[in-house]
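User: structure tokens for NrtR DNA-binding winged helix domain-containing protein, please.
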Amino acid sequence: MTTALNAVEINLSAAIAAVANNDPLILTTSSSGQPERDELPFGPFNPLEHRTFETGLREWVAEQTPLQLGYVEQLYTFGDRGRHKTVEDRGLHVVSVGYLALTRISENGSEQLRKSGARWRNWYSFLPWEDWRGGKPAMIDEEIRPALQEWAEANALPSRLSRFRMAFGDENIAWDEERVLERYELLYEAGLIEEAIRDGRADRTPARCLPGLAMSFDHRRILATAISRLRAKLKYRPVVFELMPPAFTLTALQETVEAISGRHLHKQNFRRLVETTELVEPTGAEQIQARGRPAALYQFRHNVLEERSVAGLRVGNRS
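Assistant: Done. Predicted tokens:
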């Protein structure tokens, strides 16, 4: 028997990623309650209408945006209480099933996208401490490290200090770009981001929060999970080509990998890596450039999936 005490609603949320102009993008819609607040496309799972969770997700995305999803994979199930306040006020406990989806941006669909109210946002506007392409973000040493140090030492809990060092690194521990979710959860627990204040987990004013746009519900948490998964998957599956056009230059491929990983990569080392993995092959065509010689165009070599089970760009962790 379902009562107000054990009623559960299952929400399906999509972190839809693309890359354009060397920046990683996430598709967001406007919150009905707070139009200025971004949220991921989402909707409830209806077991009478949706045969599977993924079927339901695709239907919600098609209803809220002009996109037809291609590559989709389930991320994680989020069931913590307190992160869906508006729904829980009705006595429901919300379970969010997050998905990662990859797509290419089409110029033809930009007008339809605008009319739908959806928009592409740079995902580093939500998680600015994750973008190391220009070197370590100043905010890590100027804001995050002192605040987390104070929080970790407040109750003399060694576990907090250890988590802080593992997540953000120090002189003995390298920054690991895959720990996106761990860093977000640590900042949430320390009360340094707006969602923690909204959920009643921290007693401070929004003005004292770290830079970075908040999202509705637990959607920034789902975004952090999606980035973690995609950064890790780059190294063992050729998912990056889901974001590339059919033909591309090696420079464009490198810039896409850099955008996702949040790291600057050495050009010659990257090209040697691409050659070693044999993930691409030349098309025989060239791209005319504004300056310099024309650049050779390449395409993904699909046969690689039949040749070996692990096929990715193992760029390694930052040292």
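User: Anything notable?

Assistant: The first helix runs from residue 53 to 64.
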